[in-house]
Amino acid sequence: MKAVILTAGEGTRLRPFTNSEPKGMLSIANRPILEYIIEALAQNKIRDIIMVVGYQKERIMSYFEDGKDLNVKISYIVQRKSVGKVGTAYALSMAKKKVKDDLIVLPGDNLIDARTVEDIIKGKEKYKVAIVQSDIPSKYGVVELRGNVIRNITEKPTDEISNLISTGIYKLPPSIFDDISKVMDMGKYDMTSVLQYIIPKRKVTAVLTHGLWQDVVYPWDLVDTNSLALKGAGAHTSGRIERHVILKGPVTIGKGSIVRSGSYIVGPVIIGDGCEIGPNVVIHPSTSIGNNVRIGPNSVIEHSVIMSDVNMGASAHISNSVICEGVEMGPQFCATSRSTNIEMDNELHKVEHIGALIGERTIIGDQVSIIGGTIIGSNCNIASHKVISSKLPDNSRIL
What we know:
This protein is of the alpha/beta class and 399 residues long. The protein folds into two domains: 2-217, Spore Coat Polysaccharide Biosynthesis Protein SpsA, Chain A; 229-398, UDP N-Acetylglucosamine Acyltransferase, domain 1. It is built from seven helices and 40 strands. A nine-stranded parallel β-sheet has the order 15-18-21-24-27-30-35-38-40, with no helix packed on it. Strands 14-17-20-23-26-29-34-37 form an eight-stranded parallel β-sheet. Helix 1 crosses helix 4. It is globular. It starts with a strand and ends with a strand.
């Protein structure tokens, strides 16, 4: 069985974190989302993987190359943007020449584990859809069942139908490409339309997966997704830990990193390579810190994603935040969390306990506060002593 991972999209709803990174390469517990998917496939002995790539494809291809380092074989198909033909079915159709047997199809922006893949591939059913229960089903394709057979899928319904949604993970026979072709001839290019075309003709089985499945759609999703990924983290220390440092729970510290005296870290926490932490820094659970990060003395970080090459001044306080690569912030930076409404896609999203969401290479002066739920674009420059409470576009200057 081959796997086809659809990872060509631009991830516009994840901006600013996808300004220069495809969404499948976003860092979750210091690894790209795509790496978790590939690992889950390999653990189920699915090693022949096709990736449909497009936006920032070089980032994906240079990182994974032929897959040898992950004990898989990866080939790539480049999806050229075609006006009106950017749906998931169109993306899958591009793999037709490479697939002769049954296949598993997966989105490239979902955090999954081996159990998720196992649930969808086991059994002899030809057409299978992995489903989960959701608190916000209206954002997805909602599934209606008779027993375990799918009777209908409604994309983003306005009425309450069910709390069962399609994950976009499918097991399909190679004849699916003929179905896709027929549906595209009707002017539809998404997999939900293909399934709606198939359902009256063939048995399509729903599998309620008991594995991990977390969708990454909006910038604030990265915080909870990171927390989920860290739940299974172990403890491993390659760096140097000075005297009077306290580590509790699963804490990983990468090679060349140093944790200075008086620091207190409670896992699950992962710290990458070449970092300098402290002295007297407190890091609370569900925090990941990338490579080459500097965290100044007397800082406090909790439940956050700090990506690589971040330079944080002394006495920072960061909670439930995502700080992208290359951000620099002066002393006494503050980004604490709150529950708020964030506008995205011309609608308000209620988000619980969210801090700052800061794009790459932004420079922040001394004693700056970012109000929880505020999105700061890439390459911004914020002068000292400012309080930022509204969204800043890329390249903004606050003087």
